[in-house]
Design a protein that fits this description.
Pfam families: UPF0102
Distance between the termini: 36 Å
Family: Belongs to the UPF0102 family.
CATH topology: Trna Endonuclease, Chain: A, domain 1
Largest sheet: 5 strands, mixed
Oligomer: single chain
GO molecular function, one term: nucleic acid binding
Number of strands: 5
Radius of gyration: 14 Å
CATH architecture: 3-Layer(aba) Sandwich
Number of domains: 1
Protein name: UPF0102 protein Rru_A3692
Structural class: alpha+beta
Shape: globular
Helix content: 25-40%
Number of helices: 3
Strand order of the largest sheet: 1-2-3-4-5
Amino acid sequence: MRRSRRQGERRGRWAESLCVWWLRLHGWRILARRFRSGRGTGAGEVDIIARRGRLVAFIEVKARAEAARALEAITPRQRIRITRGAEAFLGRFPLPEKGQARFDVMVIAPWAWPRHLKDAWRLGL
């Protein structure tokens, strides 16, 4: 693994950990981190799956030098793969009665608090 890739991986894990703490401080319960539905299924990894009350959020974390660039980094193809991962999670762990699911994005930029963009997109589910 190249050095720049390792640094990116380390930065991504740090950003996810920061988001987990931010979510916990705001009343969320973390159900899973880096959830994968399995190799060869076409489903991507969901960075964080969190629950507050009857709401389950599938959260993609992006760390970039500028917040706007972080949002651009989530492509339509990536959204579809994350949605498939969410469907696989819900297949194993169904929503609570009258529960809801949504897709959120958390953006990490230098010298700023994490930004939690709620209901960032809708697909399937």
